[in-house]
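Hi all, long-time lurker, first post. I run a small reading group and we've been trying to get comfortable going from sequence to structure in the token notation. Rather than ask abstract questions, I figured I'd post a concrete chain and ask someone more experienced to write out its structure so we can walk through it together at our next meeting. Sequence below, copied exactly:
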Amino acid sequence: MKPDAASEPAAGDLLQRARGFSSPLLAGVLLDSGEPALQHADATQAILASIGADEATRAACWLTQAAGQLAKPEEQLGKAFGRDIARLALESRKLMGIFTLARKGAETASGDGAAHSREMLRRLLLAMSEDLRVVPLRLASRLQTLRFFHAAGIEPSAEFVQSSLHIWAPLANRLGLWQIKWQIEDLAFRLEQPQEYARVTEWMRRRGAEQEASIAQASAELLRALAAQGIAAEVGGRRKHAYSIWRKMQGKSLELDKVMDLLALRVIVDSVDQCYASLGVVHQLWSPLEAEYDDYIARPKLNGYQSLHTVVRGPAQLPLEVQIRTQAMHRHAEQGVAAHWAYKEAGAQGYKGVVAASGFDAKVALARQLLAWRGEYAAGGGAAANPFDDRVYVLTPQARIVELDSGSTAVDFAYAVHTDLGHRCRGARVDGALLPLNTPLRSGQTVEIIVAKQGGPSRDWLNPELGFLHSQRARAKVRAWFNAQLLEQTIASGRAQVERLLQREGRGGLSLQDLAVGLGLRSPEQLFERVGSENLPLRQVEQYLRGAPSAGAADEMALRAAKAQGGGVLVVGVDALLTQLAGCCKPAPPDAICGFVTRGRGVSVHRADCSNARHLRQRHAERVIPVTWGARNDGVYAVDLLVEAGDRHGLLRDISEVFSKQKLNVIGVHTQTRGDTAHMLFTVELPGLEALGSALAMLREVKGVRKAQRR
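-- Answer (accepted) --
Happy to help. Here is the structure in token form:
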């Protein structure tokens, strides 16, 4: 929406008025770098003008510095220059304050942690920018500071150089600000490693004239050859910059004279057929180098990048890289979500390809478009929507950046940092102020969690109307805590009941493992859980104990009845004999099965491969009898299904839809999340295993599911 025209100044004299307003305020003011503030603003404005920035962004160069000298900057700048430019200048100052704080957290990380911290810092910078014009403004400011250090002969801190190379330059690259990117890289490289910079640039100087002539000659020759074959093409040449050459050497462990693509041509044509036809022309024109050809059209990179790459001996026998692609491939590589930066930024590992098809990358592409639409910024007041609004980036007290969904609270933050921190969360300080735990967080805030020494989450957190939790992952962790507490209570109750029964029956010395197995269960814990939840009546345990010394009359009757049926084979389901399906393995037709005559509970039927059944065969072989499924089978059978999947919002809903479509009744669910992986156990009722195959196949098709199988 366009702002009120009466509140905004005319653009014609904006730059003069901004400088005139700021000059007296900045007289004698020095920045932390030692550079005069007015000189820095003048030069930053010139850099922005060179890349076509709008006048409001350029005017903000002076006003950003002047804001620090004003008592009420928002009010004073808004009155003099309008709300839009005032917000732009103040946001620029705020962004630098947040960056300085977050940078400290990135400094302490190393290895993969350092790379992750730098990536989070770049994302924070973009997410903090409500008006995306702040980003090129800060990039131009960083470039000017590097120029000042170089011109003044000042050696900056190692941290300043590292943040220039690993945060600001990649950010410029992502946003398509190529001129700013390579200048930041070369200046930072020169300041950090002057000897290496001198070696590379001296080598480039000696070969410079020869290289420029070679590029011009090669472009002209290739255009003529393509035209002769009726191929209309755009041909552009380039030379690598010093830092790019040095990075190539480091990434591929090469010496200067072994870097093959110092000179390059890019050929852009209309169709894939013309790509391959152009490749033929190139190889006819110049001799290709062996093992230096890559067909990324037939075999695209993992990030979707497509192009033909070849290296030839060009004019003067210099190595010349030629890239051939269509217009669509070029747009995809330079501006799409699989942009060229995705594998360039990955360093030595990046030459193998890096996946870039993420939601964040798509937003970066949108941000690049927004920055390109500078004319619309000027016409509409610059209030373009921030494409990073569905994520927030907040800081820990140690300045580590944590990425959350927009709308997340301090409780979500605590669970994102560590599960135990979430469980013991009792309050939060946000930017030093105590705020309610259900307050949504904003990018750039620093969050400190107040914890209890012990205890767990509140049940109120699971009430969606109270707004304590936004993240589904955090909700799952809270539910898991309460489920674990309930399970512990159930097991404790069951243990107490079983132990009292054993004392009453005078069987205190009986092995609990033997008792559990005798009852068809895997372990004492499972026995306690069944008794505590009343799924196994204590009376049944008592009957087992009283029949344990020897096979009772009922057991002998069961054995005789079993041997009398079907030539000594027990038919499951015959009314004359009690049979029960073992809960440890949950057999179902047509599983291979075996029977075990229990003490007082008839015959327990196990799957033939059940570990408990093997144990019973070893210890009580005389009680094992053959069993088979009946010819008619009208019942349903409980079957356990194990599902492992990447944790995400809506996962349980999608899996439940599969069971609904298959018309399977779910009678038990147990879930547990470790890291980003959800482990789920479903107990479903089936008429037989024939229905199991299609259900498992559909489960494996659910997004994020890695494994689905019967237990």
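A couple of things your group might point at:
The CA atoms of residues 9 and 391 lie 33 Å apart.
The chain has 26 helices and 20 strands.
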